[in-house]
Amino acid sequence: MMRLPKFEYRIPQTIAEAVKIMADAGPAGQFVAGGTDLYPNMKRRQQMPKTVISVMRLNELNQITGDGNTGLRIGASIILTDVCEHPIINRDYPVVARAASMISTPLLRNMGTIGGNLLLDTRCNYYDQNFEWRKGINFCLKKDGDICWVAPGSSKCWAVQSSDLVPVMVAIGAKLRFASTLGERVVDAAGLYNDDGIEYLRKRPDELLVSIELPPTNGWRASYQKLRRRGAFDFPVLGVAACIHYDQDQVSNAKVVLGGIAPSPVEITEANTALVGKPLSEDQIQAAAEAAYIKARPLDNTDFVYQWRKQMARQYTLRALRDVAAMR
């Protein structure tokens, strides 16, 4: 049986208190919300914080305000079930509710939070094992070792970004608000993720994710499609988010973003180019899907054969864009 290591558990009542505790704890501190990612990592000795700071009781992190006309702010500690079931999110941002509903199982969605999913640790077949298994292969570059077993000749960790909500947030242009003892800052979702399995967030360890700010919809349409072995529970081995803005019958702006195939979400700029300035016709959809296939370069560190996952980048982009086209 895997057990948690010993740690001090703190429950602040305000954001100011939370970030002060983190500043005092330094590198040995870690924020936690639902704990569905952190606690398993601690049991596997992938993360070993000495101070764990719960943010579930912070009032500002547990509110949803606004709507599709003005923009929506979702507190980072809102559980995934509430994201799935919230009437305004379902009415104005159905792609967010859909992506959240595809995360794990109902039990874990009752614990896991939207903020936790957006800050999810990167995953890899060689990393997501217990301590004894990893020790048996002499560990890996991401934790305790000096070699990436996915690409032994590479100096980079290729652990995969496996959040369902990240590609969606990048596609729709969401912003994330962080707080620390130095103050607050707001960053674009697209600028938060780094193409490195170890340093996968452009975020300081002392920063607390406070809220997710969704832009006004202004008539855009979006879809998210997920590839996994089972119909529930599994992490994505490919996720495709597509967001389309219209100017009458023409596509005025487009974003196609792939998740689950690299350490960060991959925006397919060639697909965007193929769509903008034209009607969303089958020919344009096919061209965008071909661009996604060419750009996708999954590695052999998750489920399924990686060459097949590359093929699926084309098919799931077709699904996402056809779904958006059907919404008009």
Compute the separation of the termini in Å. Answer: 52 Å
Average pLDDT for all residues: 97
Rounded to an integer in angstroms, the radius of gyration calculated over CA atoms is: 20 Å
Strand content: 15-25%
* Order of helical and strand elements: EHEHEEEHHHHHHHEEHEEEEEHHH
Biggest sheet strand order reads 4-5-8-6-7
Unreliable sequence segments: none
Sum this structure up briefly.
This protein is of the alpha+beta class and 328 residues long.
Structure description:
The radius of gyration is 20 Å and the shape is globular. The chain is of the alpha+beta class and 328 residues long. The strands form three sheets. Strands 4-5-8-6-7 form a five-stranded antiparallel β-sheet. The mean pLDDT is 97. 32% of the residues lie in helices and 21% in strands. Among the domains are: 59-119 and 160-214, Uridine Diphospho-n-acetylenolpyruvylglucosamine Reductase, domain 3 (2-Layer Sandwich), CATH 3.30.465.10; 221-326, 2-Layer Sandwich (Enolase-like, domain 1), CATH 3.30.390.50. It has helices at 15-25, 38-43, 80-85, 87-92, 94-101, 106-109, 114-118, 131-136, 165-172, 189-192, 269-275, 282-295, 306-326; strands spanning 8-10, 29-32, 51-54, 64-67, 71-75, 175-180, 183-188, 208-214, 221-227, 238-247, 250-259, 266-267.
